[in-house]
Amino acid sequence: MQTYAGVSVVNALPSWYGSSMAVDLKVNVSIKETNNCEKKYNILIDTILDFFREKFNIPCLDVQISSEIPEKSGLKSSSAVSTALIGEIAKKYGLEIDVPKYSAILSLKAGVSYTGALDDASSAYFGGVAFTYNKEFKILDIMQPPEISILILPRGNRNININLQYLQKYRLVFEEIFRIARKDIIQGMKLNGLLIASILGYETNEIEIALKKGALASGISGNGPSVFAVTKIGEEGPIIDSFSRFGNIILTRPIDYVSRN
Ligand SMILES: Nc1ncnc2c1ncn2[C@@H]1O[C@H](COP(=O)(O)OP(=O)(O)OP(=O)(O)O)[C@@H](O)[C@H]1O
Ligand SMILES: O=C(O)C1=C[C@@H](O)[C@@H](O)[C@H](O)C1
Asked: The GHMP kinase N-terminal domain covers which part of the protein (predicted)?
């Protein structure tokens, strides 16, 4: 099954309300039955396989993953991998399950997520811009994305310490940003991107430059360290010029929402 990376509209850590926009960086997962039940992958994949073996009597599986998303980068790689794997299992064994919700529950169980990241899992699985309340595993809305270009400075291997209690001191501000984002995705993305960068202790230099050069929004995606900016289609030039000083750039676009039913 194919799923997608995402960039943040609203980070869910401060308020449990989160929003993520699917972007055109793909993950593909395929599975095959095997007699070798000893094989270990990583904590996320092993947690998912163990759960489906125990709860749904699924046999042991060989898992093949191909991913265009750097890990631990803020670009929602863990949700893309988990929804693709769970979706593939559901398809092969005819399970009528809520794939993003199982992804959220099992990401929490595996310890790769703070809130379950249902926002990331929903955009990874369905495309579009997902708005969720992660505390109750609820999808509130999935919207079609605006017509924009997305420029990413991809950075992996995040190694900052995240203090959840400190982030949650900003709950009210992020609830307000979430409300703004539901009416104006880009405006919400801009406020979140700037604020989360400062709160998590990242440099805001690249973000400020992107905004000065005309980006509609710019910020840290997820918990970082990747930085992104969005522009009108055809107006990427000045941002590409300024971002290219900082490293390789990925130029991509949002993925539309498509129902999987
Ligand atoms: N290509 C891959 N193959 C196997 N597992 C992967 C792959 N990519 C990501 N993962 C899993 O996802 C985990 C990374 O999750 P993490 O939440 O740190 O990154 P992220 O999803 O990029 O970050 P964020 O949630 O801030 O967007 C890895 O530890 C691994 O378990
Ligand atoms: O771990 C989590 O629960 C999350 C991680 C980031 O991707 C956030 O952007 C997301 O909203 C929630």
From this structure: 47-128
Identify the CA nearest to 154 among candidates 229, 228, 80.
228
Best substitution site from 39, 40, 43, 81 to test ligand 1's pocket, by max atoms within 8 Å of Cβ? 81
pLDDT per position as a tens digit, 186-220: 999 999 999 999 999 999 999 999 999 999 999 99
Alpha carbon distance 39, 144 (integer Å): 40
ipTM score of complex = 0.95
Q: How many CB atoms lie within 10 A of CB 261?
A: 3
Is-contact 45 39, C-beta < 8 A?
A: no
98-116 residue pLDDT tens: 999 999 999 999 999 999 9
Ligand 2 mean position, distance from CA 96 (Å): 26
User: For the stretch 196-228, what's the b/e string if a residue is b when 16 or more beta carbons lie within 10 angstroms of its beta carbon?
Assistant: bbebbebebebbebbbebebbbbbbbbbbbbbb
Residues annotated in a binding site for ATP: 70-80
